[in-house]
Specification:
174 residues; mainly alpha; three-stranded antiparallel β-sheet; 6 helices
């Protein structure tokens, strides 16, 4: 009898995920466009941790190249595009001085665009997995087509890397 509960439990977890996913994307947008206090040590720590994450991401993409076609190329293209978006985001960021110190507010349209890229990639992943299960193709052919996931990851990581290092440099001048 308890074995019959396992499919129900898995179905419940999947439904919970489908309910929480849109809420998490909405929260990502809301927190991404929020006005923030400039704290140089937080920005500096974030910049160095993002640099470390980028090194790990590139190492993972290089290792994934064994299974995913052109994995490192997708990752590098995503990082470069994200870096350009990060510089654009820095140019569009509003900086202001207040009685409690400096504040900055990221551009809401760029935050919305990045959130939609994440949502689109998740939706495409679900659709791609659905097509794979219906076609009966082998796992290796499905995995070899997942370079877009690395490109989106590189885009987001490159954006935040360039944005945070640019923010760090701008804070240092102020």
């Amino acid at each position: 009898m308890p074995l019959l509960l396992i499919p129900l439990l898995l179905l419940g977890v999947m439904l919970l995920y489908l309910i929480v996913l849109p809420l998490s994307l909405l929260q990502r947008y809301r927190s991404g466009r929020a006005r923030r206090r400039v704290q140089s040590w937080v920005v500096g720590a974030n910049a160095w941790m993002l640099l470390l994450s980028t090194a790990g991401f590139l190492l993972g993409a290089w290792i994934s190249g064994r299974w995913i076609a052109d994995a490192l190329t997708h990752a590098l293209l995503g990082l470069a595009t994200g870096g350009l978006l990060g510089l654009l985001g820095l140019a569009l960021t509003r900086f202001e001085r207040g009685p409690g110190g400096g504040f900055y507010t990221p551009n809401r349209w760029l935050v919305m665009a990045l959130t939609l890229v994440v949502a689109g990639r998740i939706a495409f992943g679900f659709w791609h997995a659905w097509q794979w299960t219906r076609s009966g193709a082998d796992h290796a052919s499905w995995l070899a087509q997942q370079g877009g996931l690395l490109a989106v990851g590189g885009l987001l990581l490159g954006h935040y890397l360039a944005y945070t290092w640019g923010l760090r440099a701008r804070i240092g001048r102020v």
